[in-house]
Specification:
The protein is α/β, with parallel strands linked by helices and 466 residues long. It folds into two domains: 229 residues, nicotinate phosphoribosyltransferase, CATH 3.20.140; 213 residues, TIM Barrel (Alpha-Beta Barrel). It has 17 helices and 19 strands. A hairpin with a 2-residue loop joins strand 18 and strand 19. Helix 8 packs across helix 9. It is elongated, with a radius of gyration of 26 Å.
Length: 466
């Protein structure tokens, strides 16, 4: 684990002498200033606090930072860190307030605030920005996943008899190999599991146990990849598929087979649809066919039509066709736009959305950055001589970067959220109401330890309010 003193940007180390010398407190906030989506799902702070903030600063950390920063060419706040070690036993004297994780709020609202609790550490709320602002990543993944959930949910509600039961397993995380680190896979993968329960990212399961008290955050099924199919050779493609039935085709079971290693349509129509059709039916399991190349909309539509012709369908209570014995999972070229397009096409063709699941990789965990939702962490007030003063920026060259000012909180009035001014004692809204930002961390101690089940419950409540 990185030395906590060094878990910041280089220029932050010189800021302790840049504030007015009589400054006793600094107040900072986090917001999404807009972006691709108009609402954000707040998630991941608890994991960051447990991972990056829970270990106290030690004498060894201070000595290491002093030497490194000296050679790096920037100042070192030796007095400040020595005082922190003596007075606070190495624990950071800050209070963090935040939304309950799993809350969905409109953009342009405060989601988290930070203030120092010891007047000798007014430089600290800004110093921890680098570590805390990394929350943009799990929030953005959770937000993308949540908005995809709404796309799939709408299609299921429109076409399926039991939409809520099926929804949790309709978007599967395929993203572990496409991210920059195991840590990203863990935190991003877990952010997806706030909304769904399907994943192949084992790091996310471990993170759920470690950070959110969840024994099993998600589930998977046996599935083939191209190497396990093509190792049999093209001449033995039928045997490769038959092996999957033999190994995993148990009553009530489900298994997935990538089927485009050579000729997808021939495999669906003739191998699955003729040569192995009865074996699939007799197994009592559900075969999930995975196309893995070509235009997603066209390929899924034709695959589904071929499977319907060979295995038959039933008509559900809403008048849509449900495949017998088989399903489809699309994992190539999957993103929010293609998911919507695929669902529009197959439902227009008369098929229920329950016939398909999606595997999303790079577009879920990697094709995003801090600007996707325009995240910012800014100071908005300082206390000098016992009085609070507004702090803000208002660039003439870019009004989009105008920051908020003053002591801030968040109130909820029915379905509406408002960032409001709060007092400097209890951080209570000046015009009444309850500050929805609750204390979650104070002076090195976690005050709230939510389970993933609690987070998911808040997501469900937000969905019912949509």
């Amino acid at each position: 684990m990185i030395n906590p003193i060094l878990n910041t940007d280089s220029y932050k180390t010189s800021h302790f002498v840049q504030y007015p010398p009589e400054t006793t407190r600094l107040f900072a906030y986090l917001e999404s200033r807009g972006g691709v989506y108009d609402r954000t799902l707040f998630f991941g702070l608890q994991a960051i606090l447990k991972q990056a903030f829970d270990r106290p600063v030690t004498r060894r950390d201070i000595d290491e930072a002093r030497e490194l920063l000296r050679d790096h060419g920037v100042p070192f706040n030796a007095h400040g860190w020595d005082l922190l070690l003596r007075r606070h036993q190495g624990r950071l004297p800050i209070e963090i307030r935040a939304l309950p994780e799993g809350t969905v709020v409109p953009t342009h609202n405060v989601m988290m605030t930070v203030v120092n609790t010891d007047p000798d550490f007014a430089w600290l709320p800004s110093y921890v920005e680098t570590a805390l602002l990394r929350i943009w990543y799990p929030i953005t993944v959770a937000t993308i996943s949540w908005h995809v959930r709404q796309i799939i949910r709408e299609a299921l509600v429109r076409t399926a008899d039991d939409p809520e039961a099926q929804l949790p397993f309709k978007l599967h995380d395929f993203g572990a190999r496409g991210v920059s680190s195991e840590e990203s896979a863990a935190l991003g993968g877990l952010a997806h599991l706030v909304n769904f329960k399907g994943t192949d990212t084992l790091s996310a399961i471990v993170a759920g146990r470690r950070f959110y008290n969840e024994p099993m955050a998600g589930f998977s099924i046996p599935a083939a990849e191209h190497s396990t199919i093509t190792s049999w050779g093209r001449a033995r493609e039928v045997e490769a598929y038959a092996n999957m039935i033999g190994r995993f085709g148990k009553p009530g079971g489900i298994f997935a087979v990538v089927s485009d290693s050579y000729d997808l349509y021939a495999a669906v129509d003739h191998i699955w649809g003729e040569q192995l059709r009865q074996q699939v039916i007799d197994s009592g399991a559900t075969l999930v066919v995975r196309p893995d190349s070509g235009d997603p909309v066209t390929v899924v539509a034709r695959t589904m039509a071929l499977l319907a012709a060979r295995f038959g369908t039933e008509t559900n209570g809403k008048g849509y066709h449900v495949l017998r014995h088989v399903r489809v999972i699309q994992g190539d070229g999957v993103n929010p736009a293609s998911i919507a397009a695929i669902l529009d096409r197959i439902t227009a063709d008369g098929f229920c959305a329950s016939n398909i699941a999606f595997g999303m990789g790079g577009a879920l965990l990697q094709k995003l950055d801090r600007d996707t939702q325009a995240f910012a962490y800014k100071a908005s007030a300082v206390e000098i001589g016992g009085a609070w003063h507004d702090v803000y920026k208002d660039p003439a060259t870019d009004s989009r970067k105008r920051s908020k000012r003053g002591l801030l909180g968040l109130v909820r009035q029915g379905a509406h959220w408002h960032t409001v001014p709060v007092d400097g004692a209890r951080f209570a809204p000046l015009d009444g109401g309850i500050n929805q930002l609750r204390p979650v961390w104070r002076d090195g101690h976690l005050l709230v330890d939510d389970s993933l089940a609690q987070v998911r419950q808040r997501v469900a409540e937000a969905e019912r309010g949509c």
